[in-house]
Write a structure and sequence with these properties.
The protein is of the alpha/beta class. It folds into two domains: about 5-160, HUPs (Rossmann fold); about 190-315, Elongation Factor Tu (Ef-tu), domain 3 (Beta Barrel). It contains ten helices and 14 strands. The chain has helices at about 30-50, 60-65, 75-85, 100, 105-115, 140-150, 170-175, 180-185, 205, 290-315, and strands spanning about 5, 20-25, 50-60, 90-95, 120-125, 150-155, 160, 165, 190-200, 210-215, 225-235, 240-245, 260-265, 275-285. Helix 1 links the parallel strand 2 (about 20-25) and strand 3. Helix 5 (about 105-115) crosses helix 6 (about 140-150) and helix 7 (about 170-175) packs antiparallel against helix 8.
Length: about 325
């Protein structure tokens, strides 16, 4: 597979970006609907000898044109780019979205960005794609401009999974409601958080069980509760089945939201500095216990349920770690 090139402005783009087959969008989460488009981009690139490419934006356009409606994001632009590589994308332009870009008309955007700078031969988009100033243009406009400027447009229909229309907003809502197992079907992988391991308050390790405490910049957090999770060291190949409490530690009168993960298999070697935590299934709501000892007993019951979950997974789908 070709290496991935990431460009963070039009000034970084050189002539060797061309010729390209391109898809355009925010792609937050890189869900199964996005991946259908990305795989088609990669296939077309291989067939025609064009470079499979993505144009995405940072910040999200809504942050500029409608800040009150701007969504919280599941993934950073860089995370999206590396997820796209798995589907055959070779180059990603993360275009800074500012008022000058927001005010481009549809034709200005096509001519100056897509044709002159990116050398598009084909543009593939979802059926709800809109672009140009005030999002005034749609896929029919893109097709007409393609005829004018020498590229063709392909519109990819939306995807449904078990009755759900797959969209980034639907997945955000599912995660925020704690329905992480349903969200994983729409994503095509478990929903996860990444970040640094930070010191906790020290109470848990003394009175209940030792945990890894995650500090993350991800904006979409699972609903408060206890989850079956899978934890991996981002700096090497280690991984562990785990249980994670997302919440406020009410037994200890906590006030700050924390992500505390209890590993279900031994931690050998140095403690990880950066971890990714994948949320597989919500076990229960968070609640206040009458004592740390009662909380510890519940954590051990949660751990037993999580281990049973992983045994079932092992029987049905192969070892998860």
């Amino acid at each position: 597979m070709a290496s991935l090139r990431i460009f963070r402005s039009l000034d970084e783009v050189r002539d060797d970006f061309k010729p390209s087959v391109l898809t355009i969008g925010n792609f937050d989460g890189v869900h199964v609907g996005h991946r259908q488009i990305l795989r088609r981009v990669a296939d077309l690139g291989r067939e025609r000898g064009w470079k499979p490419s993505v144009l995405t934006f940072d910040p999200h356009p809504a942050r500029i044109v409608a800040p009150a409606r701007a969504p919280r994001l599941m993934t950073s632009p860089e995370q999206r780019a590396w997820l796209m590589k798995d589907d055959g994308i070779e180059q990603v332009l993360i275009l800074p979205f500012d008022p000058s870009v927001a005010h481009l008309t549809s034709e200005e955007f096509v001519k100056s960005v897509l044709v002159e700078r990116l050398g598009v031969k084909a543009v593939l988009v979802g059926d709800n794609f809109r672009f140009g100033h005030r999002h005034a243009a749609d896929t029919k406009t893109l097709e007409k401009l393609g005829h004018r400027y020498g590229f063709f447009t392909e519109v990819i229909p939306g995807v449904r999974v078990r009755g759900h229309v797959v969209s980034s907003s639907a997945i955000r809502n599912l995660v925020a409601a704690g329905k992480v197992s349903v969200a994983s079907r729409l994503l095509g992988r478990p929903y996860g958080l990444e970040g640094d391991v930070v010191p906790g308050h020290g109470v848990g390790s003394r009175q209940t069980v030792p945990t890894l405490n995650l500090s993350t910049k991800t904006e979409v957090l699972p609903a408060v509760g206890v989850y079956v999770t899978r934890t991996r060291d981002l700096d090497d190949s280690r991984g562990w089945p785990s249980v994670t409490n997302a919440g406020y530690r009410p037994t200890f009168d906590g006030r700050e939201f924390t992500e505390e993960t209890f590993l279900l298999s031994p931690l050998t070697g140095a403690a990880p500095r950066r971890i990714g935590v994948e949320f597989l299934y919500r076990l229960r709501a968070e609640r206040k216990f009458e004592s740390p000892q009662a909380l510890k007993a519940q954590i051990l019951r949660d751990a037993a349920r999580a281990l049973a979950y992983f045994r079932r997974w092992d029987r049905l789908a192969g070892a998860p770690l």
